[in-house]
Design brief:
152 residues; 0% helix; mainly beta; six-stranded antiparallel beta sheet
């Protein structure tokens, strides 16, 4: 799936609009230096939901943010980090996974779709259900593949 945006955009996978507990996994290959990733417990009409993003080609940062009734996560609420000395590259795939159970969401990254590293955990009750899909922020484009949703 090729996704492109000129601002910020998210898309919910058609039949998965009201999930509560699930595992969402997808591979992403960032083609530009803009943030791309997964959209969880989201509403594409108002953009509310949780975003798991990698910063894009030639960058090494990732972040977990929320857009809700009070707006975007404040800087102190953002969960973020980097992958060390490596950088994301446009010719490689990276696997992102979100596991949602109750008010807990866990976020994982893999370089080989076998070994997953837990990057963060979020406990929040604002959104207990919603759609799952992909997200692109700031502009740019990315390739998404191997999108899988497992209801728990």
């Amino acid at each position: 799936l090729l996704a492109r945006t000129y601002g910020g955009s998210q898309a919910v996978l058609g039949e998965n609009k009201n999930l509560t507990d699930f595992v969402l996994t997808a591979s992403v290959s960032p083609q530009t230096s803009y943030r791309v990733g997964l959209f969880a417990r989201g509403n594409y009409n108002n953009s509310y939901g949780y975003y798991f993003l990698i910063n894009g080609n030639r960058d090494n940062r990732w972040q977990i943010i929320k857009y809700g009734r009070k707006g975007w996560s404040t800087p102190t609420e953002i969960i973020q980090g980097d992958i060390g000395n490596d950088v994301f590259q446009s010719d490689k795939e990276y696997w992102l996974r979100v596991e949602a159970r109750g008010n807990t969401l866990e976020f994982f990254l893999s370089f080989d779709n076998e070994t997953y590293l837990k990057l963060g955990e979020l406990r929040d009750t604002e959104f207990r259900s919603g759609g799952v899909g992909i997200a692109l922020l700031d502009g740019g484009w990315a390739l998404f593949d191997n999108i899988m949703v497992k209801k728990l």
